[in-house]
Amino acid sequence: MQRMAVLAAVIFALGGASTVNAAANARVDALQGPAWLERHGERQPLAPGAELQNRDRVLTGSGGRVLIQLADGSAVKVGEDGSYAFNAMQQGERGRPHFAAAVDVAKGAFRLTTTIFHKYRSDRAINVRSGTVTIGIRGTDVWGRADAARDFVCLLEGRGVAMHPQAEPVSLDMPLAVYSAERGQAPGPIVRADPAQLAQWAGETEIQPDRGVQQAGGRWLLRYGPFDKDTVLGHYDRLRAAGYLPRIEPRASGETYLYHLRVEHLRSEEDAAALEIRLANVDRELPAAQLRRR
Fold it and tell me: Which end of the chain, N or C, is less packed with Cβ atoms under 10 Å?
């Protein structure tokens, strides 16, 4: 009886998970799992189309990538094994083109860019803190990383102001300018990144083709089953714990129910096939999936 109550709650929650708010401050456009959303101390797998609230944290595992659209039309790309908090997000009143946010990168690589969902480049104020290094962004593209050894940001274009607790603020206006600090030390002199190095860094935050990418509006899905209720809940729990969000689909079978498990919003047939392999490694009891297009 308890397992049936849990299953009913899961199906009910999933049925109400697709509400979309056109005025969202931040929305997940695409992801390459594993990835999680942490809200109010609770962690759940991240889903394409999910809206982020202030104090939400996006977490990624090995191989994970997430593309997030902000309300001003800019995008935040985050890489694997990272932790990214979104705070102080606010839009201007009465439709004015203004947006403010603070992104706290505790660990991992990120890129903030205006070239994907471009609406306007002016009248925005976004601060990104990469470990101990902070850059104030107004119409600027920037890449950075925070890790155990060093925190840094690299200005790609535009202007910004870089800050560190042990130094005075510094204006950045030279493309490929790198502002960095070894952990526990004051920042060093500003240097210029090599373009080849930048290309390597960029690969750490780009969504990778045919790697199991899920995207809002993706029409491919994996369908497993049918299962009885205990079996489907076992698969559901294992996939969620690993950073993937399946959906349980009940089907009447005589006087009882059987259940299918669906992983949806895959961008292409190749992405679906790649994710099936990854999920089989996560849950070795999963049978072969049916690849379908909605």
Answer: N
